[in-house]
TrEMBL record:
<feature type="transmembrane region" description="Helical">
    <location>
        <begin position="51"/>
        <end position="71"/>
    </location>
</feature>
<keyword id="KW-0472">Membrane</keyword>
<feature type="transmembrane region" description="Helical">
    <location>
        <begin position="12"/>
        <end position="31"/>
    </location>
</feature>
<keyword id="KW-1133">Transmembrane helix</keyword>
<keyword id="KW-0812">Transmembrane</keyword>
<dbReference type="InterPro" id="IPR029164">
    <property type="entry name" value="PIG-Y"/>
</dbReference>
<protein>
    <recommendedName>
        <fullName>Phosphatidylinositol N-acetylglucosaminyltransferase subunit Y</fullName>
    </recommendedName>
</protein>
<dbReference type="Pfam" id="PF15159">
    <property type="entry name" value="PIG-Y"/>
</dbReference>
Amino acid sequence: MAAYDERKVWGWLFVSIGFLYFTVYFFIAIISKVLPPSNIAVISAMQNDWYYCFLVPLTLPIIVVLVYFHWLSMKMFKHA
């Protein structure tokens, strides 16, 4: 029963970390752009930075292409 509890703890840890990363990314990419200009240096830097706004949306098509090439290479390896 201890292994089950340990897996449950690790699962909740990964879900919590994922939620934290999503929340921070959502704030940086979307919410900080609609806030009024700030005098706080960190928030001002986030508002003026456009890298992370485009990083995830432009990465998704590349992932689709890479998954296709991975599938294609596995098919070629299987039938070679």
